[in-house]
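Lab channel / #folding
Pinned by the channel admin:
"Please post every new chain as: sequence first, then the structure tokens as a reply. Keep commentary short and put observations after the output so the thread stays searchable."

First post following the new format, from NK:
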Amino acid sequence: MTRFTNPVLADIRAAAARIAPYARVTPVMCSEALDELAGASMYFKCEHLQRGGAFKFRGACNAVWALAEDDARRGVVTHSSGNHGAALALAARTRGIPAHIVVPEGAVAAKLVNIERAGGTIHRCAPTQAAREETCARVQRETGATLVHPYADARVMAGQGTIIPELLQQVPDLNVVITPVGGGGLISGCAIALRALAPAVGIFGAEPAGADDALQSLQRGQRVTDTVPDTICDGLRATIGVPNLALLRELRVEVIAVEDAATLAAMRLLWSELKQTIEPSSAVVLAALLKVRERFAGKRVGVVLSGGNVDVDSPAFAARH
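Reply from TO:
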């Protein structure tokens, strides 16, 4: 499987076998109070309890262990606002290889700590997509490391897609699955798996209104790249990837955009009812579901909580408590 070639179900199954010794089977949680509020039966797939505190470990681990030995020795490199970088560093440590992580200024402190704890080497850059990509290319030239893109990488998408076979085994007969949308790696992998395993299941993405390039791109029929992200959801500020957008169109994914205030309210609800600490980029899924309750009324909904690496000193955490 080569990078930027869309994965298929066989790749997702291979990824599941590849990461099985390292990744956790994350639990599913439910809440009668939240179900009553939403008018739906919700099954929260707790990827914030994955190794590294986010679903990202699945894709990173698959990419690392898919490398040929000669390539692996030179290490891996990526750019990331935090979770993918921490996941790649942790996955690299399981194979004993170097990991170089390009991180934009202003990244969440808790995520930087996770990268360093996992043994990753941090390379800082300006907080723009162009700066991230340029710095990443430079580090790649200097080190010979293999690029593991955060979302526009078939190995990463296949790894993220392993959530779905796991979820369907835990909760049969789902009607809908909803995940966050940033660069699109998570929802791409999940959509591929769902269309192959349960084609009747609806697929929704949730993104912040202040970074709704995926929604705009689907509405306009072309990839929107000129939005300036303005959202508390730091993990969802990336521009939707080229292959990821194409998959959203092909696989009929609908995207819902929500305001940050609603996301913060959803964080409070998840803490109050599930007693789970999640980051804003996770809470956006519940916020989206509650925004359009009528779309999900009476349905069995798989809700992917993507990560829990929130900075306890951040405004988001303070606002929730």
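NK: The chain has two domains: 9-55+154-320, 57-147.
TO: also worth noting, Residues 84 and 150 are 6 Å apart (CA to CA).
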